[in-house]
Amino acid sequence: MKTKLLLTLALLISIATQAQTEFTYTGTGNWTDQANWSPSYPGDDGIYNPNYIINIDGDCIYNASENSFNTEINISGTLTLPPNSFYLYSYGNINLNGGAINLSSNTQINSSFLTAAFTGTGNINSFHTTPTTTLRILNDFIFSPGTTNSSGNISFTSSSGTQYIEINNAEFIFDIFSSNDFDTITGNGNDNTDGIFGEVKVNILNGGTFKHNDTFAIINNIDISFYENSTFSSIPPSGFISQFSLVTSSVNSTTGDIVYTLTDIESPTITNCPGNQNVTADCGIYYELPDYTTTPTATDNSTDSVIISQSIPAGVAVKDGAEITITATDAGGNSSSCTFTVNVTEETTLANDELDDIVSKNISLFPNPSSGQFTLKNTSGLNLTKGELIDVKGALIQAIDLEGFTDVQTIDLSALNPSIYFFKIYTADGVATKKIIIE
According to the model, what pLDDT value does residue 289 have? Predict the structure, then answer.
């Protein structure tokens, strides 16, 4: 008994290690048309042999009522199974190399004890002369469009009538290579009608980089029951979270697209931030800030642009001790920042007109002209004391208390007659004079 068992095991190992032989079908006709095969005819039952690789480059009809595919089948042409009751047990992969497999709507496809896969790019076509019939794809089948190095699309199509494609306990594997290169499956809009479910997995390959809210319509035109009854899984790239969603054209749609979305949650990394700045005042106690955003650099996990900004804009005059924050913000709203201090050394001498000019640059009055409603903006937080409205003859028309005002305030001069006026704004550091027009 032991001797027989050892001989049996040796025979199985010998079969498993045999080199695979390729057979290629060209032209149009039946499987049994031996002249269409090269280098030779694989036999009526060649599709059973696990040591065969079958290439269907032409249009081949395979006539059988029930069979098993043990071979690897590569289809660049068309393989048609007859329109009758048919049970297909597939032990080997069916690679769609731009071709199609035509299956009767009464066909039931099973991967049986092993897990078989549809791969590549091509069509799985359901055909039958009777409408509203069903193609059933059952028992642990895998759908994995494309190859290990390139993306692909597998489409479910129907030749006539309302052909339903029922998919039970299948696994769908999608590879994403980049934002614009990923696997897809296209349904015929009538798929997955009764208690159907599957498992959808997404793999991120080649260490690709992505944008915030990158979206991938991986399954298109599918019955919404598939989305409702399936499970979804993915390991997103570092710094992203992922989500699967169903997108429909309207509230009452029975079909839609399953979309995979990557959302950036990681903040940029900011480097070369300026250190504390020791400067001399341009005039008096004020220093006009330069643009500090050109010095830092920022890197991010997404390919979106990163915006670098500074808390007090360039051109604004500041006093000693002003804190400047540099912030890097990506498209997802994630940000990182660094802060430094501007230490201003006071200028020893200053002419009054120079100081007034600095004060004037940091106070704005708008809109101008106006019907009488003006907005006064104090960009540097100067200590304002009062305002005086003077007409073109030099007469004081109105005095306005500005004590304690540090930001934005509305000035209502609508009661005055339309004319040209001069608005003098007094601060602890100087006087700003603004010409205004009331229409």
Answer: 92
